[in-house]
Design goal:
- The structure is a single chain.
- By secondary structure, this protein is an all-alpha fold.
- It is built from ten helices and no strands.
Length: about 200
């Protein structure tokens, strides 16, 4: 019985921490200003609880990012078109990339904080590897399109949090305009086919 109670307490503390962190990132202009002490205070838990549950600030950021991403992941894995697995690949690739872009726009401060957290290469992050693997697999289903591995990297580069922040924050490009520009870019890439004189091996 005590073990069950401690697990319940740990789960409750985790939810409180994620909710507090979520609220802090929504309010603060600079995500770098938010410390583990800030989150612990807002959640009403000790810093030790925070470190035991998430390891460090980067671990907390990853957990919050994954929690926010969960509805998108469910739609991708088992949902209907245009994100779900039954969607034709030529239609699914633009939809997947639009979902990534919209998620970054909706979570600008959190996504930027995660990229800037110093937790290693962003290309080794679990969420990036998952998106890249999925996108590559769908690209491979499109006839005539070669080098899906590089193409997936190149397309995802246009959704990097620092670029999204620059376009939306500094250049003040409206959301729908950005989505339309990105969709047009993706369409051109998918329609271009292999480059003349080059093969995937080269």
């Amino acid at each position: 019985m005590p073990d069950r109670k401690s697990r319940k307490d740990a789960a409750r503390n985790r939810e409180a921490v994620l909710a507090a962190a979520d609220a802090l990132f929504a309010r603060r202009e600079s995500p770098a200003d938010i410390t583990m002490a800030d989150v612990a205070s807002a959640a009403g838990v000790g810093k030790g609880t925070l470190f035991r549950a998430f390891g460090d600030r980067a671990g907390l950021l990853r957990a919050l990012y994954e929690a926010r991403l969960e509805p998108v992941r469910q739609a991708v894995e088992a949902g209907p078109a245009p994100l779900g697995p039954t969607t034709p690949p030529q239609d699914r690739v633009p939809a997947l990339l639009d979902a990534v872009l919209c998620f970054k726009l909706d979570n600008r401060r959190l996504a930027l904080a995660l990229e800037e957290s110093g937790s290693g290469s962003p290309y080794r992050a679990e969420h990036y590897e998952r998106w890249h693997g999925l996108l590559q697999a769908v690209l491979e289903q499109i006839p005539g399109l070669t080098d899906s591995h590089f193409t997936a990297h190149a397309l995802l580069a246009a959704t990097r949090a620092d670029l999204v922040e620059h376009l939306a924050g500094e250049e003040r490009i409206p959301r729908e305009q950005m989505r339309a520009q990105f969709a047009n870019f993706v369409t051109r890439v998918l329609a271009s086919g292999p480059l003349q004189g080059l093969t995937a091996e080269e």
